[in-house]
Amino acid sequence: MVMGVSELRKELHDFINHADERFLKMVYAMSKEYEEPEIVGYTLDGSPITRQHLVKRIKAASEGVKSGDFLAQEDVEKEVENW
User: Could you state, in order of their start, the residue ranges of all structural domains in the chain?
Assistant: First the structure.
């Protein structure tokens, strides 16, 4: 049976009105993923950066620091002298 948009909305409203907490959390999580990504900035070339991408970059940078993958201030200063 093929339902139109209004029938789908009505049936989903009925599900939501009678759903348990687990179902509501799943629907909520799915709806949050479906949203348009929130743009929080732009790269130097003008490409948008979404909140999700920024969080991934921050986590990756944090892991790099924890694993010792970074330059000390003195090393950066030495590199800058050679520019």
Answer: 1-35, 38-83
